[in-house]
Write a structure and sequence with these properties.
The chain is mainly beta and 340 residues long. 0% of the residues lie in helices and 56% in strands. The strands form eight sheets. The chain has a four-stranded antiparallel β-sheet, with no helix packed on it. A hairpin with a 3-residue loop joins β13 and β14. It starts with a strand and ends with a strand.
Length: 340
């Protein structure tokens, strides 16, 4: 049993309370707590003297370790979720954007926009193991279900295919423009890719390494986050206008769309509760209930301006949101607890 100390604020008084939580819940620092039925702020984990934009996150579940791409600081933050604190900051990177942890080889892959490289670190002690040159703007990272391949979006339009055993690039899937978020089909070979500059969602086949479908997004533009559900839908979040589009993953037809918060860069599905979490740089996380191809907003919780990336980890049942440093506010990872 551990205890999380959370500062709660109401209109009439302030007080610190000790909240008993199970061992899978983590020590967090003081934070103003906003309670909703869908999400509440459990606490924050300071990242230290980190400046500038923060990009994507990844997790090593076995070690309860969260990795944070501190793009503006040219560093990788390493957070111990069990202790609720940052344990290391790895410097010397070049605008890190995407991160992936490969459990089969116990390695961490970090994609760097600044020099187009993918840096590889050993999972046990985070010692550098080398780097893979891609060309430019290395971005999102995804790991195949069996851990046999690492996919990295980069350049003017491509997904690099990397063999984690040899740590070498073994293939490339061409795209019409730079890829933003992409997702790998569970139990299949398709990869769904947001290509905002081409105003499309592109579907590629990982086996043949070629495009097999292209879905124009019409009046919905700037599609950055993307997620796949278990019912055959691809859900893309657009910034212009700020909406979520639900697409049929077989035909590419837009089945429905709903308004959301602005400047989103990450979206996740909570399959346990049939919910969708949209993280927005506007300073909110919007929560939706999902019923087949229909979404209904059930909650909006305030975070911090510019906090548009995060990670939902089913194993800890928490949504982690990365908040960059602001006026009088240090950089931190916000820990959001889903409500039942």
């Amino acid at each position: 049993m551990v205890f999380a100390y959370v500062r709660r604020t109401t209109a009439s008084h302030r007080r610190c309370v000790a909240v008993s939580v199970a061992a899978a819940t983590f020590l967090c620092s003081s934070v103003t707590a906003y309670s909703t039925d869908a999400l509440s702020v459990e606490g924050t984990i300071p990242l230290g003297d980190i400046r500038g934009r923060i990009d994507h996150l990844a997790v090593d579940v076995s070690r309860r370790r969260l990795y944070v791409a501190e793009l503006g600081n040219d560093s990788l933050g390493v957070v111990d979720l069990q202790a609720g604190k940052t344990t290391r900051t790895l410097a010397g990177l070049r605008e890190p954007q995407g991160i992936g942890y490969v459990s089969t080889t116990d390695t961490v892959y970090v994609a760097n926009a600044g020099d187009g490289s993918v840096r590889v670190f050993r999972g046990s002690d985070l010692a550098p193991m080398g780097q893979i040159a891609l060309g430019s703007d290395a971005d999102n990272v995804r790991i195949s279900q069996d851990g046999s391949r690492v996919f990295v979006g980069y350049g003017d339009g491509a997904l690099a295919v990397i063999d984690p055993k040899t740590q070498t690039k073994v293939g490339e899937i061409p795209l019409k423009a730079h890829p933003e978020s992409f997702r790998l089909e569970a139990g299949g070979s398709r990869i769904f890719v947001n290509v905002p500059d081409a105003h499309a969602i592109t579907v590629v086949d990982a086996s043949s390494q070629r495009e097999i479908a292209n879905w124009p997004t019409g009046d919905l533009k700037a599609n950055f986050p993307l997620v796949l559900d278990q019912s055959g839908h691809a859900l893309a979040v657009f910034r212009r206008p700020a909406r979520i589009g639900v697409f049929d993953a077989q035909r590419g037809a837009l089945l429905s769309s709903v308004e959301t918060c602005g400047d989103s860069d990450d979206v996740f599905i909570d399959t346990k509760r049939s919910r969708l979490y949209v993280i927005c740089g506007e300073g909110f996380v919007d929560t939706y209930a999902q019923n087949k191809d229909q979404l209904s907003k059930i909650s909006r919780i305030a975070t911090a301006g510019g906090a548009r990336t995060g990670l939902f980890v089913p194993e800890t049942d928490r949504l982690y949101v990365a908040a960059r440093a602001g006026l009088g506010r240090p950089a931190a990872v916000w820990v959001l607890k889903p409500g039942e």
